[in-house]
Write a structure and sequence with these properties.
homodimer, about 290 residues, alpha/beta, Rossmann fold, 6-phosphogluconate dehydrogenase C-terminal fold, three-stranded mixed beta sheet, 9 strands
């Protein structure tokens, strides 16, 4: 049971965490903290938070558990703002998509990494953003990856894992570097490609006509290009090396496929599409089986 | 009203056309023709067709309207097989994703382009294939592009447009070359990218782990990589020039975005993501408005 939960950044993820923990009866009180009063009053009106303040230092008072749910670029500033105020015994976690960058930011903001800080990342979300998009079942049957550092308290890690299990999520542990490598491939690269495709088509002179004739396949393919630009700017900056590695690999593979198309090699094209379809069908079946469990 | 409708290739598209026209009471009898007896008996069992034959020449007897719904690579051979048998007064159309290639194939197969042949393409589909995936509402509120040639009979074009309107689709007309250019951007390029991304990740040594941690965004982004490899091999061969043009443009834009990430230019990254998000949000709102009409 969590006493006073403090959500720093009450958007899609932070808001959904509050709603999920409330729905599970796992939290007594939720305090919201962000820079925008409009955001906070909306969150209170929606029943996501009980109280709010725009002052991070004040938000720390009496905290039992805190969540840094702000874009990656705001992590260090926020950490510095709460460093002298966060209760030593209170557990702190985050939801950022690049774990090495978060650990660096929290370490820099606090002057050292608090033993009760447990870096974490829920593999869940939608292309929508803002607290109005939050919903209690966002994490149901989803994975959450926790990446404790060497100095992290095992008890704090267990507390954060328990919080996530209360939202319906499944928890796994790995190193920050491994997390960043995997997420660059499964999440960051597809977002970069979706943004790049929409941008490329939107710069063509016939853009209005092109979008007029696009259909369901295009809608699904580009859904993630409607994601929050600030969040994704920060992810690209924070996880730059891992993203560049998979992006350059992809560019090489795409160029090789372009050459197959250019030389009209039907047998090779079919073999490569078949290989991709098999992999994608297996992924889809496994994902469906997990959701059906 | 259509008397005897002949569907050559009873898969997702051909099967859904038959179901939609039956549901609308717009057809008296549906004859299926394909190379696979198993496919045809399944189509008959599912109520998609009334009768079938594996012999294209026999399928032509008494036809009122015919649809070539086979992969692009099979269009010329099929045209040649029915050329001496297709009734001169019967209207013929197709559903291929590259209109110049279809016109060339039909012209080559028949020896000349029949006046009653009207090239067409429904902008609709799913990543599934085969007659079991067919459903009557696939074309509801979707666009169908017809690309008549100079020698095409206006009456035949109007007949095909009427058939599509009976399925619930909206019909537009344009030149074959313009269709191929637009579809390369909105459909063919995204399919190539989805296949290429899944292939690239599936060749990485940690592929099982990567797919384990992939989530909803990845699932939507890669949905079209589950499409039929033979259909997409043929599209890439048939519409090669237009695809290479947009693919090379995309490669340039992607590399420019990679450079922005590499040099860590946050302002430029945010501006480009914001531009893409705006375009994608506008597309999404328009598409939703069309579906809500």
């Amino acid at each position: 049971m969590i006493g006073r939960l403090v959500i720093f950044g009450v958007g899609l993820i932070g808001g959904s965490m509050a709603l999920a923990l409330r729905a599970a009866g796992a939290v007594s009180e939720v305090v919201g903290c962000s820079r925008s009063e409009a955001n906070l009053t909306e969150a209170q009106r929606l029943g996501v938070i009980d109280r709010w303040t725009t002052d991070p230092a004040l938000a720390c008072a009496g905290a039992d558990l805190g969540v840094l749910a702000v874009p990656l670029g705001s992590m260090q500033g926020l950490s510095a703002a709460i460093a002298g105020h966060w209760p030593a015994e209170a557990v702190l976690t985050d939801v950022g998509s690049s774990k090495q960058a978060v650990l660096d930011a929290v370490r820099a903001g606090f002057g050292r990494l608090p033993r009760n800080f447990v870096a974490g990342h829920p593999i869940a979300g939608t292309e929508r953003s803002g607290v109005a998009a939050a919903f209690a079942s966002l994490f149901q049957d989803r994975l959450v990856i926790l990446t404790p550092a060497d100095e992290t308290s095992p008890l704090a890690a267990e507390r954060v894992a328990g919080m996530w299990r209360a939202t319906g999520a499944r928890v796994e542990f790995m190193t920050p570097a491994h997390h960043d490598h995997l997420l660059a491939a499964t999440s960051h690269l597809p977002h970069v490609l979706a943004y790049a495709l929409v941008e490329s088509l939107a710069r063509m002179s016939e853009r209005d006509e092109i979008f007029h004739y696009a259909a369901g396949g295009f809608r699904d393919f580009t859904r993630i290009a409607s994601s929050d630009p600030v969040v994704w700017r920060d992810i690209c900056l924070a996880n730059r090396d891992a993203i560049l590695e998979v992006l350059e690999r992809f560019q090489g593979d795409l160029d090789s496929l372009r050459q197959v198309i250019a030389r009209g090699d039907g047998a090779e094209l079919e073999a490569r599409f078949e290989f991709a379809k098999d992999a994608r069908d297996r992924f889809s079946e496994k994902m469906q089986a997990q959701l059906d469990q």
